[in-house]
Specification:
By secondary structure, the chain is mainly α. It has 7 helices and 5 strands. The strands form 2 sheets. Strands 1-2-3 form a 3-stranded antiparallel β-sheet, with no helix packed on it. Strands 4-5 form a two-stranded antiparallel ribbon. α2 (46-69) crosses α3 (76-105), α3 runs antiparallel to α5 (168-198) and α6 (202-226) runs antiparallel to α7 (238-282). The protein is elongated, with a radius of gyration of 23 Å. The chain starts with a strand and ends with a helix.
Length: 284
Amino acid sequence: MSVVRNSGFLQVSSRLVPILPSGPMSIHDQVTRSTNNSAAAALLSPTTVLSLSFLSLLVLVAVQLSYRLLPTPVARQTLLLHTWHLFDFLIHTIFEGSYLYHSFFTYAAFATPPPPSDYPHPASVKSNGVAFLGHAERTYGAAHSTHPTALLWQEYARADTRWARTDTNIISIELLTVFVAGPLALYICFLLQHQHRKGDASPWFCMTVLATGEIYGGFMTFAPEWMTGNAHLNTGNWMHLWLYLVLFNGLWVAIPGWVLWVAYGELTEAGRRQEEVEGSRKHR
């Protein structure tokens, strides 16, 4: 790998990445200063508008595809469930998949290793010499790229700075989210498209597994912050607090909670019907 110093940048693998200062300021402090300075940054930046527009586009795509893929006539509940799980698949694959990419493949190189204070999560990472992927001379994350998907995460990092850099707790959750929850959500869509013909309860079981995982993932995302005084959250800006943190994350608690309620009713009803069938067989 060739490394060339060029006007304050290091060229690594044929691409330019910035050299961040190696002084007392930690990576978290640098990201916080650059992404959370709401007084200097416009509330609705072009990146904000583009991000929200793309999010709205994914909602429209999920709705339109659900109308096209589901057999007609379709019950409203089935349409809502299919739309949600298709949207869930798109978010996990496109948005959160890009976060994982930047977490593993986007980095900046340091003249000296960053201080251990750059690794606050999990709490077990304390000793000197501990480094993500074994590279003490690098710091990974979307903060070190100008790619559109990296800019999206830099925008969200104005509310939660962990998403602009490498946080092992977040990455662990996202690995399951992208590679397990995403495909499972797509499989649920397939089951919903064929549930009337198959006549089984498999969609409801899969929805229960996925919804439980979504709620658990949300808890594990924010529980470390609650126990450390919300050190990485920006709650002083109404848009960052209520739109980015509360609404966007609350959707993945409220809707999975509704899905669990619906699935409970369907599974209970399926169990009752099975008991009736078995009871009728005994009386023959």
